[in-house]
Every structure is written in structure tokens, then in C-alpha cells.
From TrEMBL:
Domain PPM-type phosphatase: start-end pairs: 9-198
Pfam families reported for this sequence: SpoIIE
The protein's name: PPM-type phosphatase domain-containing protein
Coiled-coil boundaries: none
Superkingdom assignment: Bacteria
């Protein structure tokens, strides 16, 4: 039996606090293609404005070099050390293997991560702040199948909102991500989300 390879459509969207310039944002993300599939990270530096922007940039810079590490837990632990002299950040990391369909997730703090499927799955992050005080990270694993949609978002979007109505199969991941920020994003906070459509 031939192995099925998943096809992914993914996008990152960010929006700055209403009082800040568009290029000053405490929320950021990273999407990297890998030999096995894709690595995803969403980062929310504490607060907003230039200080949060600097934390987010530092976190992203670390992840640019560390994303190939085998363990998401190791990546978070390394980032924890990297952000020690800052106010810290909350972070969600995912790795998707397109050949096996395996999704690995690890998160600390209030980045929401939900897999929209016939039976939706909400990932539970560990408590704390990366760079300050945090619980020991934990990696979760599940298997993806076509038709699922993964959404990671910061607290600039409502934490317990059901976004299933916005996930039309006709819309691209980029259109969905930008639409969520336009429709639900808070003006008084930085906002970010990553959308992954699985085909």
C-alpha cells in the first residue's frame, strides 16, 4: 500500500496594537520548511510596544537557528535560556511530518492551539512564561488527515471562540488568517495567528 503524503497550505498573519506603528509588534511567528514537512512557531512577547517587539524579534532569531532540533521540548528550554534577561514570552511550537501525518506540539503560556476536525482537539499548553518562570514543557503527538485545519493564535483573538464558520474549504490559509484578524482581532493588543489547512 502506497504511503499518502499530506499537502499543506499554511500562512501567518500579524497585526500591531492600534497605538503602534505597523512594524512594531510583540507578536510574531516563524514557518520553516524542513526535509520532513514544516516547523511552525507562534510567539507573543509580554506587553506591547517596542519592548515586546524586541522580545519577539529575539525569540524569532533564536528559533531561526534552533528549529531543526529533534525535540520541541529542547527548543523551548533553549529559548527559555535565551530570553532570561527579558520579560519573556508565551510560545507554541508545532512540527508536521507530511509523510507520516504526525503532528508534534509543545506550548507554554496562553497561545491557543486548536485542531478543527470532525471531533475538534484543543491542545493544552503548560503554564508559565518562557524566559521567566514556566512549567516543564511537554510534547504531544497526533496524526493528521485531509480536511483538518490547525489554528494557532495569540490572546489578541478570543481564546474560546469557535472559528469553524470561517474555515471554508474554498478559502486559502492566508485568506482565513487575515480574515480572523480583521473580524476578531483586538485593537488594544498585538494579534497573530497561523493557519494550516491539511489536504
Amino acid at each position: 500500500m502506497a504511503q499518502m503524503t499530506l499537502h499543506l497550505d499554511y500562512a501567518l498573519a500579524t497585526q500591531s496594537h492600534i497605538d503602534e506603528d505597523a512594524d512594531v509588534c510583540g507578536d510574531t511567528g516563524l514557518i520553516k520548511n524542513t526535509d520532513e514537512g514544516v516547523f511552525l512557531a507562534l510567539i507573543d512577547g509580554l506587553g506591547h510596544g517596542p519592548d515586546a517587539d524586541e522580545i519577539a524579534r529575539q525569540a524569532r532569531s533564536y528559533l531561526e537557528h534552533a528549529y531543526r532540533k529533534a525535540s520541541l521540548v529542547d527548543i523551548i528550554q533553549g529559548l527559555h535560556q535565551s530570553l532570561r534577561r527579558t520579560k519573556g514570552a508565551v510560545v507554541a511550537l508545532c512540527r508536521i511530518n507530511t509523510s507520516s501525518g504526525e503532528l508534534n506540539y509543545a506550548g507554554v503560556g496562553n497561545i491557543s492551539a486548536k485542531l478543527y476536525a470532525p471531533n475538534p482537539i484543543t491542545f493544552v499548553p503548560r503554564e508559565g512564561i518562557v524566559g521567566d518562570v514556566m512549567s516543564s514543557p511537554r510534547e504531544e503527538t497526533l496524526i493528521l488527515s485531509p480536511g483538518m485545519v490547525l489554528i494557532l493564535h495569540s490572546d489578541g483573538l478570543p481564546a474560546h471562540k469557535d472559528f469553524s464558520g470561517a474555515l471554508s474549504s474554498e478559502r486559502s490559509a492566508q485568506a482565513i488568517a487575515e480574515g480572523l484578524l480583521f473580524e476578531y482581532g483586538k485593537d488594544d493588543d498585538d494579534v497573530s495567528c497561523i493557519v494550516v489547512k491539511v489536504d
